[in-house]
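Example (one chain per record):
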Amino acid sequence: MKKLVAEFIGTLWLVLGGCGSAVLAASFPELGIGFVGVAFAFGLTVLTMVYAIGHISGCHLNPAVSIGLWAGGRFDKKELLPYIGAQVLGAISGAGILYLIANGKAGFEIGGFAANGYGEHSPGGYSMLSALITEIVITFMFLFIILGATHSKAPKGFSGLTIGLGLTLIHLISIPITNTSVNPARSLSQAIFANDWAMGQLWLFWIGPIVGAFIAGFIYKFLSPEADD
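Predicted structure:
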C-alpha cells in the first residue's frame, strides 16, 4: 500500500508539474517558458520524485516504465496492475487539480489542455505514423536510460539526475511532434479533460509507449542482465 500511495503522489506531481507548466506558463505573454521550459519541468518532476519516493516504490510514475522494468526482469509481474492503477489515478487527480486552477482565470478556455495528439492536433502538424514512430523510439530510449542508470553496476546516487535529464531531452525532441507522451497515464489524464479528439487519438499514446518500453526491457536484459535474472 505504501508503494501504491507513493506512485499515486509521484504521478500526480508529474502531471501537475509537467502539464501544469505547459498549460499555465508556456505561453504566458513575454515571460512564457516555451518548449524548453516545459521540457525541463517534466524532467524536474521525475528528478525530484526519484529522490523523494525512489526508495519506497522505485518511482515508476508511468505504466510504460513498469512494463519495461518487468520485461527487463526488474519488476514483479504481480505488482503491474496495482502500480498502473495507482499511476492512472494519480495522473487523473493531477489533471483535475490543474483544471481547477486553470479554470480560475477569467475567460479560460480548455483548448488542448496539454493533451497528446497527431495530425491537426500535433503542435507541428506531424502525421499519425510520425507520432507512432516517435513514441515507440523515445520510450525505448527512456527505458534504456532507466535500466542503465538503475543497474547494480551503475554509479550510485546519479540515477535521478540521469533519468530526469533523459526525460528533458526526450521532451525537447518530441514536444513539436506529439506534445510528448512517453507515459500512457499522463496522456489519459489530459485527454479526459480535453476535447473529444484527444480521447479518439489516445490509443496511440498507450500502444506506442508500451511497445517501446517492452522492447527496451528485453534488449537491455540481453545486453546486461542483473546477476539474479
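Caption: Residues 115 and 171 are 14 Å apart (CA to CA).
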